[in-house]
């Protein structure tokens, strides 16, 4: 499965509320109906004092899942997308600064368990069952650290209480040898409060994950799932 990310900045003259509301409807209502789309998530950028000024570079990230690289590569030419979705984009997105990334997913921690010390409630939590979750997203730029993905990553994610931890690597079938990013990282929590509590328990682990990537886009988001 291919996971497509679109890092979206809002258009000039569009307020944050207007951006996020238009993104939810009508845009998500339309885009999630593209026939080749298998999963659809909107991650709305949310401020946290645990990240610096660059966290608001993008107002949100769209994640779309496709069955094949062919479907992902042809998304922009899909007739339903061209007819209904594409005309809506410039109404709220600054397309000149939009960045896209097609990836293949590597799951480090699928979910947490009671055997690993999680409470019963925490072990029951699964991102696919929830319409809204908190997510930390990191996109490593081309001039970032080529060794951004390390063997210690899964352990660092557990130390900050992440409920799920995934790394995304460039899809060679789509990007060839010239991807726009070196890779991406996603970590999930049920709520923003759970994220902040987990990070505050082990700031060294958090800094280890976030800073070792070098030049990267990092943001906290409240993610809304429209399709599993």
TrEMBL record:
It comes from the Bacteria. GO terms for molecular function: oxidoreductase activity. It holds the Pfam family EthD. InterPro entries: Dimeric_a/b-barrel (IPR011008), EthD_dom (IPR009799). This is Ethyl tert-butyl ether degradation protein EthD.
